[in-house]
Amino acid sequence: MQNAMYHKNMTFVRFIVVFVFGVFFLSSCKEDLDMNLVQKTLFEDSALNAIDADGPWEITVQQDERCFVELEYSAFMESYFVVNCEGNKLDLKITTSSSLPYGTECRAIVHLNTLSKIELSRACVMRLEGAFTGLEEVDLETASKCIGGSFTGNELEMELTDASELLDFGFEGNKVKAELNDASVFRGQLNPFIRIDLEIYHASVFVNYDGSSAKANVTVKNASVVNLGRTIVNEVDFTCNSASTATFNVTEWLRGSVTEGSEVFYYGNPQVDVDCDVSSFLVRL
User: Fold this and answer.
1) Which in 92, 169, 176, 217 has the greatest CB count within 10 A?
2) What is the pLDDT, as a whole number, of residue 16?
3) Residue ranges with strand state E in 18-154
4) Which of the pair, 15 or 263, is modelled with greater confidence?
5) What is the CB neighbour count within 10 angstroms for residue 247?
6) CA distance linking residue 155 with residue 134, whole number of Å
7) How far apart are CA 232 and CA 211, in angstroms?
8) Which sequence spans correspond to the domains of the chain?
9) Confidence (pLDDT) at 187
């Protein structure tokens, strides 16, 4: 009994020693880091129109007739990131996968006029300020977030995965294609005159607050939500299943299926051709 108690006490003592040493080590490491703020201006008068950012950057994109990039970062981070301009694309990469110490700064302010492509990954945050032309692609991964911005273009493709978010985002053009997976979220104002194609899966949410389109093709599955209640569409073809919810505003035709405990709500007085199983609901509002 005494031996057991002795071993238990020694185990606790060893834990305390290791814990205190770990705290001291981490504190020492932070004290050794140069946390001074460095500011640089790069790529002046370049032809940037695409951004690919990886890691926990804080990026602000401002509409400007001139192109250049302002960086603000903690000095020690210079060993842990790569910033390149390849052709018309700005690459911002944080090369470490370790958690950054509290108080670390890693910001970029990007000035440009045309923005054709946005790629963000690994918890990158981007804020867009102003109106831009030429957007063709948005790709957000691993809990990245993109906020704001007003765009015009022809066709836009969006892909959001791993709990990423695209918020307060506006686009006007001919066609939009969007795929959301893994609890990702879109909330914005899309105005695709000809067509909108949506594939919304795995507890994701897609809400459009405005706009109109001639045609919509929508697939919503796995406890996901699509709300096009404020988007006037002439014809809607849809599949809604696996405890999902969809809302449409339709003028001519509503076609599709609602199954497996799902719900579809619609505004308007369209012709309706919908298969609805006994566990689901189709409701005109």
Assistant:
1) 176
2) 42
3) 37-42, 50-54, 58-63, 68-74, 81-86, 89-94, 106-112, 117-121, 125-133, 137-140, 145-152
4) 263
5) 19
6) 9
7) 7
8) 1-32, 34-120, 153-285
9) 98
Max intra-chain CA distance, the chain: 84
User: CA-based angle 248:205:131, to the nearest 5?
Assistant: 85
CA–CA separation, 125 and 139 (whole Å):
13
For the stretch 37-53, pLDDT in tens is 999 999 999 999 999 99
Question: How many Cα atoms occupy the beta-carbon half-sphere of 74 within 13 Å?
Answer: 18
Token digits for 242?
């696996």
Cα–Cα–Cα angle for 39, 43, 44, nearest 5°? Answer: 95
Does position 58 have pLDDT exceeding 80, yes or no?
yes
How far apart are alpha carbons 108 and 280 in whole angstroms? 48
CA distance 35 to 46: 30
Residue pointed to by tokens 């045309």? 114
Q: Which CATH architecture has domain 34-120?
A: 3 Solenoid (2.160)
Give the tens place of pLDDT for each residue, 66-98.
Answer: 999 999 999 999 999 999 998 999 999 999 988
pLDDT tens per residue, range 122-149: 999 999 999 999 999 999 999 999 999 9
Asked if 188 contacts 148 with a C-beta cutoff of 8 angstroms, the reply is no
Residues contacting 208, CB < 8 A, separation 6+ = 186, 188, 189, 190, 227, 228, 230, 231
CA 34 – CA 40 distance, rounded (Å): 16
Judge contact between 260 and 243, C-beta under 8 A: yes
Structure tokens given for 244: 């999902």
Using H for helix, E for strand and C for coil, what is the string for 12-27?
A: HHHHHHHHHHHHHHHH
What is the C-alpha to C-alpha distance for residues 189 and 183, in angstroms, rounded to an integer?
Answer: 20
* Chain centroid, CA 135 distance in Å: 16
Res 31: pLDDT: 53
